[in-house]
Amino acid sequence: MNYPENYRYTKEHEWVALADGIATIGITHHAQEELGDIVYVDLPKSGVAVEKGKTFGSVESVKAVSDIYAPVSGEVTEANELLAASPEKLNEDPHNAAWLIRVRVSNADEFQQLMPASEYQTYVGAES
User: What is the residue-level pLDDT of the chain in tens, covering all 128 positions?
Assistant: First the structure.
């Protein structure tokens, strides 16, 4: 799996793409693979504050329910409505159409502290 180079990654297997102060956040291909068939996604509403390292939602698969942790702090501007009706999209396209939330970032330095793609791929390889 090639992870997008312009994204940053967490050890909890979330990815972040930052553009114009808005972070798009999702779970990685590795995360969805570990979870198996995803059946439900619980996401916050617009206007909710998220804090780096704290849970903001969960993903439920046929195997387990897993918390999702905010890789950056800020205010939720949008949750991906597609996932409410079609949570399985997370298994099909975790790095594009199946993003989870968008956040107006309150501290851009938090993004820079996350792992670049090459480091994340090494991390995932070591974890397997």
Answer: 789 999 999 999 999 999 999 999 999 999 999 999 999 999 999 999 999 999 999 999 999 999 999 999 999 999 999 999 999 999 999 999 999 999 999 998 999 999 999 999 999 987 65
Tell me which CATH code domain 12-110 carries: 2.40.50.100
124: enclosing H helix or E strand: helix 117-127
Strand locations in the chain (E)? 8-9, 14-19, 22-27, 38-42, 49-50, 55-61, 65-69, 74-79, 101-105, 115-116
Q: Judge whether 27 and 94 are in contact, CB under 8 Å.
A: yes
